[in-house]
Amino acid sequence: MTRIVRWDPFRDMLAMRTQMDRIMDEWLKESNGAENGENGQSTMRLPLDVSENENNFVVKASVPGINPEDLEINFNDKMLTIQGETKEERVDENERYHLRERRFGRFVRSMTLPVAVNADAIDAQYDNGVLILTLPKAEETKPRKINVRNAQPLVEG
Known about the structure:
By secondary structure, this protein is of the alpha+beta class.
């Protein structure tokens, strides 16, 4: 037996909105840099600014509220890795949030540098919540100026 159902455009719009909300939630999760790390834990991707001059690479990362001792920085074979964790504050049961955008949890970021650096001379500074790493380029990768000299005239004799 065939059943006739009255078309309800509002029901269809609500279903479409639910699907769009789901798509946006997935997109926002990706754009915020959340990744699944070890043990299935969500890991945030640390945003970096990386610049280069003739002698150094300079890496800056905003890590407000983190003690410098809680940061782990490793360098191995052109690969720089910065990781740490922001602890979530204890929430009072009687408190109701109107807005809660700060993120808590582990963060990690790895990047490969295009040339070799002098790993023994890497400098790390922490100033007002900004981690600043200076990675000096290895001498063999720095540009060299080549002087051109006048050629000696050939003497025929």
